[in-house]
Amino acid sequence: METKSVVKVGSRKSQLALIQTNTVINHLKKLNPHLTFEIISMQTTGDKVLDAALSKIGEKNLFTRELEVALEKNEVDFVVHSLKDLPTVLPEGLLIGCIYKRDSPYDAVVMHPSNAGKKLEDLPDESVIGTSSLRRAAQLARKFPKFIFENIRGNLNTRFKKLDEDNKYSAIILAEAGLHRMGWQDRISQVLDKNSCMYAVSQGAMAVECRNNDSFTLSLLSQIHDPETVIQCVAERAFLKKLEGGCSVPVSAFSEIKDGKLSLTGGVFSIDGTRGKIETVCLDLPESIKETDELIISPNGPRQFAGVVGNREVSIATLEVAQEVGDQVADLMLKSEAKDILANAKAETAAAIIAEKQRKDAEKLRNGVKANGH
Known about the structure:
alpha/beta
């Protein structure tokens, strides 16, 4: 097997992304003190396009593609992502070499300073709630129809500045894990439970993507592959993959491992939150989730489950159950009114993408006319 002394790591440039990347690197350094890790940071499309909602941009790999290109060109050895940003279908030749132990998957409410100490239910009618997520807006609109939900984009620093200084938003909704990683947990006014807002698929988990034929990196990453997180995220990603969802449609999840069983609750909602369908499946996990047989790596790399590989701590049999749980929840959805809800949400999003493109084209034309002095 190839050996290396320097490992090149790809990361987005945002403060949160670099914190996450360094968390993974520091853990690997402790286990492999002889290795040197070099971070190569870059901007992605999602970092550059900040004047439109994520759902209106029309790309599934907004925060990952530039990093994946660097992987494909052998410019980096692995890339650290927020797993919820990674599409369920990865580019050929790439896979998720490990999933780091999951932090809180829940969403949190951050209030405008004038609303400090309040919860969502304390806010007056027509309060403006900022979120870049259709999933959050759809679910919260069901519970709080009196609110106005508006898009807010940018990294966490930018969103905090908009909240505190623009006086437009009464509150914004963010992932609790990101707030803790940034050290901003003191701004959390409320954590939303599964009855208020189920989380995004794989939210709170960090994933490391690498090439499927890079045995050195795969072996390195297997040291920090967290079994319980892997099982839950495979189930969640399998569910989303079968639905062909993403940030463009309101799909949510809640998974749990308890008493030797894996349960997954999935939710599909209309964009305005007026319609929704929730289904749950629970299956027994193998008595031991560890791998007893030698893992087989084919010329195309190790076997994948929604893009994720197993290792000694998570057996193929266990991942097969996790994938089955996700597939079964999706099957229940597609046999119910959720299929219609999903189709309508996709159609609405497609129309919004076209409208956004037309808006930008018209804006470019106006700016061009001005530049030419007409």
